[in-house]
Amino acid sequence: DLPPNTTSNVAAAIWYPYKAFPQVKVLAWGRRAFDVFCDLAGERGTGVTLVEGYEVFRKPVPDPWWRECVRTFRRILPYELPPGRVDGYAFETPVIEMSLYLDYLMARFRQMGGDIQVRAVRSLNEPLALSPLVINCAGLGSRELLGDTAVYPIRGQIVRVEPLSTRRFVLDEDEGETIEREIGPGDEVEAGGVIESEESGVTYIVPRSGDCVLGGTAQPNEWSLEPDMAVAASIIERCARFMPEVRGTRVLSHAVGLRPGRHSVRLEAETLPGGVVVHNYGHGGAGVTLSWGCAEEVASLVAEYIGV
Prior knowledge:
nine-stranded mixed β-sheet; three-stranded mixed β-sheet; 14 strands; alpha+beta
């Protein structure tokens, strides 16, 4: 699918490392993407803006592991905390309005001579028959295309509502619903584990120019793309605990996307009969957050292959 019918179109989207591994590489990729998005925020038509917001917690927490990536960061003062929360921090981060941003990227790609063809690809042999160098960014589709069972869906559901009075985003990972499930392919668990508890998703309120995105869920191994109205009601109620005006705000739409989960992002070159494939998939809930950093590493691998 092409925009507007992509998972990326459903994203809130905010720069924030979420459900992507390994941490060391995610840090490097995320830092680079953060810098590029800050530059894009200064250009018209990109859909990127810099927004300050809060992440809050029920118990004291240290600074986040990605602290060094962001440019402004402070601990929240006690009077700024919502009821039931005892700690948190404020930081400025890029918010990307995906419908605008994807249109910008598509136009930029075509202006540079790019050509887009839409068709089914059943194996890597097909593109390798046309070119000795192939970049595989099939995302969740890599499960079927490559037989990579480590790739699995992480279902995300959001509610779009009319603009709220706030211009700040709010994140709260303590407010998600706890679920139990069988461990699936690609999960990182202790040896011998068979069941794990997992938060169904961070609660978030992300204001944009013409709407506000309320979220969300992170349901592993769930494939349904149909919005669940009971889940939507839960999202609205969770968000209303931080901002009561949410309850009276008109709902514009509901949406679902399937994040490409994996125990680690796969970004590597593979030599196959017919040429070289550079894989770039498995970004979990951090596709936008890691995008530019991963893209530049892909370009570096391509440069090695062609001897630049």
